[in-house]
């Protein structure tokens, strides 16, 4: 089996405490949906990563279940604790609780299925990731909940057929699969950099911008980028009940995963039915704003949950189905 790992990321600083709506979450306009009454309630997001700090105050009511596919803790399946910090940071951006302390996630009432597929060192077998995807597909919650979004901030250089097939199966089961583009970018938007699973056409491949809406120099560019989200100096949860500021396409990805949870709640309430994966992807892309960069760098543009939609009100739905 090939190896897969954390997409390299940078720890900018570790904080003991904070009390803030993270700037990246403000940038994608998540608070506007909170004000309209949408917070991701009823949606389960599976985060495939290094696990999560399950004792963190931000996850007291957020984690619905979890599973460990790694050899950490002698492979104990029920122990999905994070010994790296990366998975905890990603989980916080998706769904840190609205509790008056620390940070708040994009979808603060969504539930997290924590699937540990990378060890504390940040590495794992592609087999673990493939098994993790199959687990997310088959998983059912105490009230028969199903996973609606899979978030993966990880990658490898090798195109593995078993991993690709698992992703296709997840999409066939109406699960939106959101993946980091990778951090091997050279600053030249005309060159291709690929990391898998991000480069598979079936996934939502997320590139990174800074808080000034400029493409991050490290962000991979290729013709399959779908959209971009904030990935530099992102504050979120970290180990030991703490917080940290990290940078990477790993940090951009959970902004999109959390946004998908908000849109599931909003659109399904409005349409009074369950969205297909294709429809959810279309709703996501409808809420982007094009930046002054190549589509190979930005895809459809930066995620803007309200202003992006306003700017596209005259466009036919079919124009968004460019997956």
UniProtKB/TrEMBL annotation:
Record-annotated active site: 49 (charge relay system), 86 (charge relay system), 250 (charge relay system)
Domain of life of the organism encoding this protein: Bacteria
Annotated keywords: Hydrolase, Protease, Serine protease
Keyword Hydrolase: yes
Record InterPro entries: Peptidase_S8/S53_dom, Peptidase_S8/S53_dom_sf, Peptidase_S8/S53_subtilisin, Peptidase_S8_Asp-AS, Peptidase_S8_His-AS, Peptidase_S8_Ser-AS, Peptidase_S8_subtilisin-rel, Subtilisin_Carlsberg-like
Transmembrane segments: none
Pfam families listed in its UniProt record: Peptidase_S8
Sequence ranges assigned to domain Peptidase S8/S53 in this UniProt record: 40-300
The keyword Hydrolase is annotated on this UniProt entry: yes
Record family assignment: Belongs to the peptidase S8 family.
PANTHER family in alphabetical order: CELL WALL-ASSOCIATED PROTEASE, SUBTILISIN-RELATED
Designated name of the protein: S8 family peptidase
